[in-house]
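Task: encode each sequence below as structure tokens.

Item 1
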Amino acid sequence: MKSSISLIITVVAVILFLFFVSSTGKKPPLIPRDAAHQGIAAQEGCISCHAPGKTSPLIDTHPPKEQCFVCHKVKKG
């Protein structure tokens, strides 16, 4: 019985640790609510400015660039 309680406590501690570590990492920037981003609802709207050679190109180390809205959310308010 004691080993079961120890196991449960260990599992809960690991889950809490992983949750804490994942929630304190760097979060992607929010999509601003400005005129330039008004009405953008698809990745094609993003690449019109954020593709190489455009107004605000993404850095070379940016993760896969085909799914903008998976990471970036629209700023509230």
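Item 2
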Amino acid sequence: MIQRLFSTTKKFPITVTNNAWNKMSEIINKKKSIGFLFSVTSGGCNGFNYDFQLMDQYKYDELILNKKINPTTIEKNNIKLFIDPIAEMYLIGTTIDHISEDFDKGLFENKFIFLPDKNLASSCGCGISFTPKI
């Protein structure tokens, strides 16, 4: 006999820190956008680059309505993060964070950083490119 367990908890393929949500909220409110698109492009020293783009209504309509793509959407406090369905399998386990400059800690810029799950991908020192582990 096989027993199946069902869960009402939905686990998202990526994790977004509170720092990243706060920065995304700030940007979306200033730019009057609807969210961000998280994807990948080919290139970089490890094969793939993380791609993080602001989505306005036109880009959203082009992606969702015209191409009929239904991305995974993560939402917090009305801030939406769309995950490109074609790239989602490469992004599983990634954490999006935002770091702010802190001269005492040697941080001289504000930026989003992408941290892959070390069991699923490896990245180079720049933190922008990665290689999925197959």
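Check on item 2: Strands lie at 15-16, 35-42, 48-55, 72-76, 79-83, 95-99, 111-115, 121-123, 129-132. Confidence is low (pLDDT under 50) at residues 1-9.
End of task.
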